[in-house]
Amino acid sequence: MKKIFFILITLALASCSKDNSNNNDRSPIDGIRPSSIIHEGGSREYQLYIPPGYNGTDPLPVVFNFHGFDDDAYEYLLSADMRSIASVESNPFFLVYPQAGYCDGGLAWNPSELGGDNKCDLNDIGFIEALIDSLSMEFKIDSSKIYACGYSNGGMMAMGLGMKKSDRFAAVGSVSGTMLDFESPSRPVSTIIVHGTYDGVLPYAGNSFYTSVQSQVDFWVNFNNTDSIPLVSSETSPSGITTEHYRYLQGDNDVAVEHYKILEGGHVWNMPDRPNSSNSVDNTGLILWEFFDRYSL
Predict the structure, then answer these.
(1) Contact criterion met (CB below 8 Å) for 109 and 164
(2) Domains and CATH numbers, the chain
(3) Which residues face 190 on adjacent strands?
(4) What is the 3-state secondary structure (H, E, C) of the chain?
(5) Measured at the alpha carbon of residue 106, what is the angle toward residues 38 and 177, in degrees to the nearest 5?
(6) What's the sign of the alpha-carbon dihedral 153, 32, 41, 165?
(7) In b/e form, how buried is each residue of 180-202, taking b as 16+ CB within 10 angstroms?
(8) For position 115, what pLDDT does the model report?
(9) Count of Cβ atoms closer than 10 Å to residue 176 Cβ
(10) Burial class (CB in 10 A: 0-12, 13-18, 19+), 40
């Protein structure tokens, strides 16, 4: 099992520390509600977006979006902002941006089980499960349509939830992330992986610490028993980035695996453009949601 301290060594090279002050000191902005729950004796924070379409009667889906190493949930929300997607009147959903805790040298998610040689003692899997229960008590949520995605270390967390809590998550997605463990879930899980071939932090081809993107795709294709040969398409953005889209369909329980391979894409959330591009268009969140919305427990 790959350990959390490898994250801290590698991701620190590409992450900028941000203001990690108490998010509850911030005022709600544009539907964002700073919140927290008590989990295992400590306060765990998260940012919640309640869409205007929520009427308190009809249950809505929930999307969890996990930030990268040593990041801040509020700042990440602003840079990986899915509010405009969640607020579409015909198909609204709750957005939850949880805050990581201090884990062996930095703010990091622990997608692995506690104990053994795991260097992190945070029970983040348990935190997210408790957070789902807390949200269910306060809001009408559609428990059959709960999803997890994340960037970098957050992508690791989303993949961990897909493996360990497949009874609660209908689909999961990773952007510039990887998998620390390869454990068979209790049920098929639709999975989407978005990754750039020029990622210098979590290399597309893998390295001595991290597995290749293709090995992650293969894991989900094999476990979900999808078609082994994907449907492949390609598209080039106005800024010149070419994206190859691989779709592995007809899995057990009608699940699927999709992979967006961004040629020359870096270690970023905003995948359609090259790093440092002046083009600010971001459709990563839309890609994820359109995939998630097709699946339920």
Answers:
(1) no
(2) 4-292 (3.40.50.1820)
(3) 171
(4) CCCHHHHHHHHCCCCCCCCCCCHHHCCCCCCEEEEEEEECCEEEEEEEECCCCCCCCCCEEEEEEECCCCCCHHHHHHHCCCHHHHCCCCCCCEEEEECCEECCCCEECCCCCCCCCCCCCCCHHHHHHHHHHHHHHHCCEEEEEEEEEEECHHHHHHHHHHHHCCCCCCEEEEECCCCCCCCCCCCCCEEEEEEECCCCCCCCCCCCCCCCHHHHHHHHHHHHCCCCCCEEEEEECCCCCEEEEEEECCCHHHCCEEEEEECCCCCCCCCCCCCCCCCCCCCHHHHHHHHHCCCCC
(5) 95
(6) negative
(7) bebeebeebbbbbbbbbbebebb
(8) 63
(9) 29
(10) exposed
Q: Which residues of the chain have pLDDT under 50?
A: 1-2, 4-10, 12-28, 274-281
Look up tokens 């994250």; give the residue: 7
pTM of the model: 0.89
- For residue 16 the two structure tokens come to 């900028």
Identity at 150, one-letter amino acid code: G
The residue among 285, 35, 241 whose CA lies nearest residue 139 is 35
Token pair listed for 258? 């999709």
Q: Which of 151, 128, 174, 147 is nearest to 62 (CA)?
A: 147
Beta carbons of 201 and 152 less than 8 angstroms apart: yes
Please write the tens of the pLDDT for every residue from 123-169: 999 999 999 999 999 999 999 999 999 999 999 999 999 999 999 99
Question: What six digits make up the tokens of 47?
Answer: 């940012």
Tokens (6 digits) for 130:
């408790």
Gap between the Cα atoms of 200 and 202, Å rounded: 6
